[in-house]
Every structure is written in structure tokens, then in C-alpha cells.
């Protein structure tokens, strides 16, 4: 995570691409960015994500002490309800997209199915990240979201590619579904491959639900107790 005093690298996508290119494609970073003003404003209003990360993680470098003092983690029933509502809405979206991918059509679009499945996985990831971290990402790349989820869960392993070419191709199609649909208009993945991706997505969403339910039970005890 970077907290910076200016806006030049506010967009994590640009920064991550620059690092990737300047290291001859040897290093991939998955960065969370705040400007100094954003961070200080959030700390003022009791941001549990920043309070947790800045308190628990290792500080690699700090230029000065312009970042405000952290408060304590905020436990409150209303905080729990906010987390629970956020998860329920994300899970609702994930199930919606996943169910839409199963509709039988006379003229199916397998490229379109990958895009729908990508949306389903993204929504489940965004929900998990909020449940575990209370963080709302402003960047929605599938590899990025899966990597964030990997910091607290093994669920991304369901989606990550295995050694086979078919598995790696399926993962690539899920990650680049929007680009493929717009740019590779002549390419038509097989229906059997897209159905396998659909099955993986279903497994991922169900596993994410179990992880979220377990974490929500823990959070409920903490927030209601305090």
C-alpha cells in the first residue's frame, strides 16, 4: 500500500504497469493507493481498514510524519450491519451473473458467457475483500482482486490456472473477457470450455459464501460484544 502526497500515481493501474514494464516484465505489483489527504480524511472518520493495515503491517519507508495518528478499531453493531449488507448485495450480484450464464439459448455467445462469469467472480471478490478488510477497491482487474483475496483466503486457488494449457487458457479468457469480446471478434471458444469455466465460477462463489459466512459470524460476536 502506498500513501502519497500528490495525485500523479493515484491510479494503481498506471503505476503497476510502469513497474511491470521497467522490470522487463519480471515483477508484478498489486498496489493499493491513497493520497495523503484521502488517508488522513479516512483516519479522521474512523477507517477500520487503514487502522488495521497501518497498525499491523510492516512499514517499509516513510518520508515524514504527515500521516495523522491512528485511532482504535471501531467495534459497533452498525459497523457489522454495514459489512453484512455489503456482502449480501455483492453475493446477490454474483449469483445473478452466475445464473445468467446458465441460461440455455438458441444462439449462445461463449465469449459473452466468459464476460458474465468474470462479472460474477469480481462481485464475489469485492464482497470478500469488504468482509475481511472493510476495503472497497477502485480497481477491478480480476487478477488484482483475486490477489487481494489470496491474502486472507484460499478460495482464489479454485480460479487460478493449473498446469494444463486448457486451464491456463480458461483463466486467461476469464481475465481478459472484455478485451476478447471487443477485439477478438472472430474467436469463438468452445461451448464445453465455457461450461467448465461456468462450473469453476459456481464452485468459487459457493466457497466464497462459506468463507464470508464464517467471517461474518466472528465479526458479529466482536461487534455486538463491544
UniProtKB/TrEMBL annotation:
Native source organism of the sequence: Leeuwenhoekiella palythoae
Record-given protein name: HEPN domain-containing protein
